[in-house]
Amino acid sequence: MQSSAVPSAWGRIFLPFALGYYLSYLLRTVNAVISPALTADLGLTAASLGLLTSTYFLAFGLAQIPVGIALDRFGPRRVEATLLLVTALGAALFALGDGLHTLGVARALIGLGVSACLMAALKGFALWYPRERQSSMTGYIMAAGALGALTASTPLEAVLPVLGWRGAFWIIAAVSVVAAAVLLRSLPDVPADSSRGGLADAMRALGGIYTSPAFLRLAASSAAFIGSFMALQSLWAVPWMMHVNGLGLAQAAGMLVVLNLGSFAGQLSIGLLGVQLARRGVEPLTLLRSGYVALMLVQLAILNAFGPVSLLWFLFGFFSAVNSQSYLAASRGFEPALFGRVSTALNLMAFAGAFALQWGLGFGLDALGARGHAMTEALQLSFAGLLALQVLAYVPLLFPGARRSSSA
To answer: Considering the entire predicted model, what is its pTM?
Structure first.
């Protein structure tokens, strides 16, 4: 992959990507606030709610392999703009849905539609920004996502009595169409690259990625850390705050704002400091290791109610910002031409973890409830299990990195 001059970078490159990822993150986390209305309207159990919400992650994850191939072959402009139109279709279907099956299909279409938003941005940054700015640009784009999560908390909760969850999704459908148009109009095009052979060659390259030690050492941590953050932020943090911390829905939505403000502050910090850290030789993997230690300590404090609730959830969001460095850490073990496939392969691991953990937490809560555990105790036991998985997934990060793979 070759870098070229950045044409009006912030206005023409960054902002269109930021709009797409803002929308993606808003849709990822929206169910955390509308879940009480969905449960009341449809009579969902915890497992059904978890399954409905996690279909986003399932579709998103399944799309990662073809999205990675498409990004490397056709470029971010064509791929992301096309998929955002699928997002609009899914949002419109969700607004019309009147049953679990329809809403599940709609949520899956939404997951498919936004499946390229982050990866297309990272691919674009790799094309149009120098290496030393990669950590910073990744931090900035993740900060745009945090703004989407912020919108899906207290602001959404405030307008729900007026719009209803159906009205909110009609607005999202319209914004998705606008975002697709902005990307098509603004981003520079990349000629389709047919020099790397057909599907068989692409799949062989993917096989090399998935069996490479440079990838495998990050796969487990992506599933456990990124997946658990998404599962909590997009759904289970609000029930925790309501049942364990004793907050009402409005207060829990406000605390979700605190969490997302922490995430925004963490991503912005990486954006502002990334270039300086890179120039001092601080690699993404180093940030990842130290950030994950801090994150596990914060979660242990949340589990044991050690400290003010607002501070703990802010720090949870702040240190979770280091998740974005996983994609850069993984890509450093491969040739630049494989960037799209490497980053989407890792994203598949993250979203597979989010799907399994979000649904699994709901299933576990129902099972523990059936055995006589109160919701508070069930949540605490589930959270402890989640933290134990993270400790195990952290171990491979301590091993030295492998040589760069040159097979494309």
So the answer is: 0.75
